[in-house]
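Researcher: Good morning. I'm working through a list of sequences from a screen, and I'd like to move beyond sequence-only analysis. For each chain I'm collecting a predicted structure so we can compare shapes side by side. This is the next one on the list. No need for commentary yet; just the structure.
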Amino acid sequence: QVQLVESGGGLVQAGGSLRLSCAASGRTFSSYCMGWFRQAPGKERDFVTVISWRRGTTYYSDSVKGRFTISRDNNNNTVYLQMNSLKPEDTAVYYCAAGSTWCNDNPDEYDYWGQGTQVTVSS
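Model: Good morning. C-alpha cells for this chain:
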C-alpha cells in the first residue's frame, strides 16, 4: 500500500522559514518524480516544485523560485521542501505527490498523493 505522509506545516510570520517532509512508503520510488503542490481556499491546486528521484533534477514554479528548495533523502525515502522568505500568499495546504511519468507541473500526471499539511503565513 503506497503512502505519502507530509509533515512540518504550521504558522509562521512573513519572512520566516519552514521545512516540509514527505515520507514515502509502499513501493520503490527510484524511477518516480516527486512533486509538491499547494491549494489555497477557493483556488485550484497549483504546482510548486518537482524532483526526479533518480537524477535529482529539479523544476520550480516562478512564484517560489529562489525561495524554496526541494531535496530527497534516498536512504529514508523522504522528500523535503525547504521554504524560506515566506509570504502571506504562500498560505495553502501543501501536498506531496508521486508520478511515474516525466517530471512536470500537471497534477493529473501524478499517481499518488499525501493528505496535505497546512502552511499559514501571517503578515
